[in-house]
Amino acid sequence: MAGVGAIRRRAACLLLFCGGLSLAPLAASGRADADPVETVRDTWVLSVTQFDLSALSPGRRVVGEVITRSLLEKLGTVNFRLRLSPEIAFYEGYEWRRSVQATAQALARRQNDRSLLLFRGDPNWRYRRELRRIDEDIERLREELARREGERPVVNEEPVFALSQANLNNNFPPPPRPGAERRFTREQNADAFLAGEVREFHGRFFVRLRLYVLYVDAFVYEDDVIFSMDDVDWAVGEISTRLASALSGTPPARVAIRAYPPDAQILINRGYAGTGTMDAVDRPPGRVTVAVAAEGHVPKTVELDLVAGELAELDVSLGAVPMAEVTIDVPSIPGVAVYHGSLFAGETPLTLRLPIDSLAYVTLESPAGETARAVIAAPSMPGDAFDFTFRLSIPPPSGERRVNNARSRFYWAWGGLWAVGITAWLASGISNGLIAAHNHDPTMESYERALRAHNISNGALILLAPAVGYFVFELSRYLDASNRNAVRISRRNR
Length: 494
Prior knowledge:
single chain; 494 residues; alpha/beta; Immunoglobulin-like; five-stranded mixed sheet; 22 strands; 44% helix
C-alpha cells in the first residue's frame, strides 16, 4: 500500500509540473500584453492665430471676430489626428536626437564634475566617497546613452487633438512674420498653427485660411469661401468641416452625382456644386445634404454619409410637376391680353398649364382700358380642367389718397383712446387717494378736493366709452378702404 501511495504522489507531481509548463507561456504572454508600449508625442497641438480683419470696416469687424470664435468652437469637436509615415519619421528622429542629446549633456556634466573634484581640496575620505559616487553616475549615464543611441522612441500614430493653452484661455497670438513660422510654432509648444484673413468682397465676406505644419515646415492646407451675412452659420460649418478633415489626417471622401434633367441645379450643404452631371470631387468625411432642383420638376433632398477614402455615387431623377389646365375667357370682348403674374401669357381665349392645387395671379386688360384681376385656383388632380369667365370694367380712380386719409384718422383715434384711457386711470387713482385722505382726516377742504377729483374721474370714464366707439369706427373704415380693391381668389368647379 505504501508503494501505491508513492506512485500516486509521483503522478500528481508530474501532472502539476506539466501543467505549470503549459501555463508558463500563457502567463508570459499575459505579462507581455499587460505591459503597455510607452509612446511619445501623445498630443497634437494646434495654435489658432489672430485673424487679419484690417480690411473690414469697424462695423464689420465684429462679424470677423464671431467667425473666428465660432471656428474655434467647431475645432474643439476634433478628437484625434492620424499621423502619416513622414510625420512619424520626423518626430521619431526629433525625439531620438533630443533624448540622446539630453543624456550626452548629463554625462558631460558629470565628467566635468569628476575633473573639478581634484581642485576642491576635500579630505581624502570625502574625495574618495564623491569620486566613487560620480564614477557610478558616469557609468550609469554611459549605459543610458548607449541604450538611447540603440533604440528609437515610439511615436503615437493617433495622438489626441488639442488647442494651444493660449486658445483655451481665449487668446489669439498674432501670426508670425514670413520666415519665422518654425520658431513661432515651437514657442507655442504646438505642432501647427492656423492663420486667416476676413475681408469684404462686393458686399459679401471672403474668408481665407492657411495651415502651417511643423514637420513639413510649410503651409500644407489653404482654403477660402465667399458667403453673405445670412449664411454665416453655413460658412463656419463648411470651413470647419473641411479643416477638421485636414487636421485629422484622414483621406478625403469622394462624391459623384448624376441628376436628371440635365439642367438640374445641384447643391451640397446649401452650396452650389454644379449642373446635371457632377464628376467625383473631394469632400470631407461625414454627412452631407444634397439638394437637386429644376424648373418644372419636383425638387429632391438626399442625405449621404461620406466615408473617408471611398467614392459615393448618387443618381437623382426629378419627376415633372403634375399640371392641370385652366382656361380663361372674356366672351363679350375677344383678344383680351392675359398676364400671368407680370409676364404676358397670350390673348383670350387662353389655356394655361399650372401646377395642380396651386394659385396663380392673372390680370386681364382690353384695348379699351378695361381690366380685371383675380387669383385663380388650379385643379387638385392632374388632367382636370377649370374654365374661368371674367367681366372687365373701367378701373376706379386710385384709392391711395382715400386709404391714406383713413389710416391717418385711425392713428388719431388710436392715440386718442390711449390718451383718454391713461387720463381716466390717473384721475381714478387720484380720486381714490383723495377720498381715502378725507376719510382719514375729514375737513371741508379735503371734502372739496375729493369731490372735484371724483367728478373729473367720472368725466374721464364717461369720455372713455365714445373714444372706444370712435376707435372701432375708424378701424372698420380703415380696413374697408385698404381691402376694397383687394384681388379676390376665384375657385371654380369643373
